[in-house]
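Worked example 2:
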Amino acid sequence: MITLYDSVISGNSHRVKLALSLFGLPHKITPIDILQGEQRRPEFLALNPFGTCPTLDDDGFIIRDSVAILVYLARKYGKDEWYPREVEAETRVNEWLMTAADGIAKGLGMARYIRRFAPHLEPNHELSVARGVKALGVMDAHLASRRWLAADRPTIADIAGYSYVKRAPEGDVPLDPHPNVCAWLARMEELPNFIPFPAQK
């Protein structure tokens, strides 16, 4: 049985929940309240010494990074339509996985984290916004001539990119200037078994 140690406020965790749902993989969720420091408890650190969410346990095989988890699930469970094996196609997906881990998470994700959960990091907000806006601009131009980020169908690159882009306004980054990104978000939300990333008030 797959067990996902999940933070409900984390876009990284939502990526994995979304993949599990879209892939139709049975799983159970163990919630971790990172605002209360549950990720620093000894029993959780025994699973993941970095103390981060998400962490996935697949019958004793532990994985501690959201992008690594997406790759693992696609390969382990034969979801080649989501992560192609042909080297050029795989590389295109990998490019956008790296963007999701860098400009999207460190830009849009961090801007949201500062605004919603970490006001003491306010001096870093402007830089995070700038990184996020740059990523959105590149995405919007890229999506002007295609429906999905890395292929002619959705892949794990789209799953990885969705969550923090969707909640960019929570970090004071508007999406209206990026109509192609908004259309892509809408396409993601129409996928069978899609699950939303809850807004934070």
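The first strand starts at residue 2 and ends at 6. The two ends are 33 Å apart (CA to CA).
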